[in-house]
Design brief:
Length: 594
Amino acid sequence: MGLTQNQFKIVYGLWKTPGATQRDLAETTDLGLATVNSAYKECVKADLIEEGRLTAKGMSELAPYAVDNAVILAAGLSSRFAPISYERPKGLLKVRGEVLIERQIRQLKAAGINNIVVVVGYKKESFFYLEDDFDVKIVINNEYAERNNNSSLMRVREILGNTYICSSDNYFEENPFESHVWKAYYAAEYADGPTKEWCMTLGSHGRIKKVTVGGENSWYMIGQVYFDRAFSERFRAILEAEYDLPQTRDKLWENLYIEHIKEFDMRVRKYDPPIIHEFDSLDELRGFDPMFLENLDSEIFDNIVAVLGCTKSEIRHVYPLKQGLTNLSCHFATDAGEFVYRHPGVGTELLVNREAECEALQTAKALGLDDTFIYEDPHRGWKISRFIPNSTNLDVRDDAQMKTAMEMARKLHECKTVVKRSFSFYEEGCGYKEKLQQLGGIDVADYATMADRAERLNAFLTADAGEPVLCHNDYFGLNFLVDENGGINLIDWEYAGMSDYTNDFGTFSVCEQLSEEEMRKALTYYFGRPPTEAEWRHNLGQVGMAGWCWYTWSLLKETEGDNVGEWAYIYYRYGKKYLKKALKLYEAAQGEKD
């Protein structure tokens, strides 16, 4: 049967302080003196206590409640803490003079918990020193980027028993850990009024019956969690049974618990604020530690200060923006306004020529095409831009915006800037095709026909192409920002390079899914007159080439396990239709010459 909760508190209290009086026990537990007296008598009657000390039986009854170990979860990116998390994991930040995870390890060890496992993933090597310096074990989660934190518990599922589950970035003002714990619990604080936190509905004796995201006047989840052996055994079985289900990938381990909450006996452990701290933003952390940023060793913040001429203390309102395929970006503000800091993603140096991008950005700034640009490091790729509040993307069905976009393309193409990067839809598509063949071939019925048409069309396009010009090469609505006054900026110049001028029209037509009538209108805006038949033929050919290129890319992505969604069909449709149509136009024109 084990000990009741009150009996446990008496036995554990005497284990920690042999000879403690009942009044002492009332002061060190949350029990009233009368309750202590009653529970104490029960323990004496059960031969657990004799003359104010634990008996051998008392020690034996307490033993099953001893904590076996602790697992500290430290694998995630902590994207909400951008841009600091771009440089180091959040758990390694120094707050009030102590590194967060180091403070937590010290607190665990002070409670007698020496078997500590740290699960790492993002910038894992940053944590390796803990193994020697703090005598902990490192476990690597290689799935941290593709899955939520359920993958970290999967890596350590075999050691789950009487186990603390901790987050590396928590700060506890008082040590919350104990050497013995009565039952599984989740730490909680109380929210007066509405909150977006995970709120708990409690049953008798503090058992958690239901959890909802958001609520009001409620106890909410925060801080450490404790699994007892019964909880661990059932949770491990659920985790193993559901781990490979597609819907599990993005779930927190708490989601699995909540979905099966009736199968668990987990209690709430209530704390008065402000003992537990979870910092969700830089501004929140600075409220707790005003000197945090000034003491932070951060190249990113040094970059901001150097470029904008501000002080670290001015930097505020820092939060992550939607991440792109190749970079990480965050918003921040200073006394001078609002800005965006872009941090190059891992491996982008293999994909992007930063010197060419920087030259293109400087040209775009000079031409008035991108007034957001402030500075880019041409070697390392970080960039600072103006943030445009309440901006929208280009609406190609707005005739004035379509006209402006085409005139911007013409202005870009007519500049004399030359960069050390070239871009060809055909060469790019052939590269994707080669990778697909290395992965086992292309099992699509009409792909070979499309590829043959692309090869033949490319010969025609190359023959009547003029000198390459500077192109954006990612020219479509999402890369245009329209401000509240109607001003338009063209951003994201990573693929800028020397190309056939029609590259930008091809991308624009495919990605914006233009009809042929809309294509002719767009070209009329571009040239300032209707296109000639030769111009129409050449531009239409690049529409087909863009569709084929990105369709091949989508096949590669799907083969690699990514889900491209409807874009695969959009690319296919434009590639198949306009490769064929442009090829016929070229062949007809050649026939006329012959």
